[in-house]
Design a protein that fits this description.
The longest helix is centred in the middle third of the chain and has 36 residues. It is built from three helices and eight strands, in the order ββββααββββα. With 184 residues, it is α+β, with helices and mostly antiparallel strands. α1 runs antiparallel to α2. The protein is elongated.
Length: 184
């Protein structure tokens, strides 16, 4: 008989990372919990992210008000220019300002989408169905993008990896009976 050390792994083993350094505000799971894809693992402290979202929303609202005012000014200037009360150059200038305001709005909408996406990153979710393993942090801990928070393991089927030396390899045969014992 041969005694060979090995390692059991689930069919899927995904390490979970935060996308940004932050403090864990809420830990939603414990080691051994079953999770489904999309379930929250941790919620990171997102005060800075929420503030960025509020700033982007406020800037967008202000730009929309300015654009609406410019639209009204352009309409009024067109009527006045048609009656000869103001020169056509004023209408052209206002129309250029309106186009600039529209471009600014597009930029601010993109900034708000970015802030919203950043805000969503404060909730770290399970990418697959499985069981939480190797939970390395607690609520209040700081996480970094380089350190895994935990792993989610799908272990309905497992794979046994053995480390066989050359001496033992030549003694192995296909179909040999095996007994697996686990230290835990």
């Amino acid at each position: 008989s041969l005694r060979i050390l090995g390692e059991l792994r689930g069919e899927a083993d995904v390490r979970i990372f935060a996308e940004m350094p932050a403090r864990i505000r809420t830990l939603h799971v414990h080691e051994g919990d079953r999770v489904s894809a999309g379930d929250p693992i941790v919620t990171l402290d997102g005060e800075r992210l929420a503030a960025g979202m509020e700033q982007a929303t406020a800037a967008l609202e202000a730009a929309e008000i300015a654009r609406d005012q410019l639209t009204a000014d352009v309409e009024r200037a067109r009527r006045l220019a048609a009656s000869g009360a103001i020169p056509e150059l004023q209408v052209t200038t206002l129309e250029a300002q309106l186009r600039s305001a529209e471009a600014n709005l597009d930029t601010l909408r993109a900034a708000r989408r970015g802030a919203s996406a950043e805000n969503r990153r404060s909730i770290v979710r399970a990418p697959i169905d499985g069981m939480v393993a190797l939970l390395a942090f607690q609520a209040g801990d700081m996480v970094a993008a380089a350190a895994p928070i935990c792993s989610v393991v799908r272990a309905e089927r497992v794979r046994l990896s053995l480390r066989v030396t050359e001496v033992d390899y030549v003694r192995l045969r296909e179909g040999m009976a095996a007994t697996i014992s686990l230290p835990a």
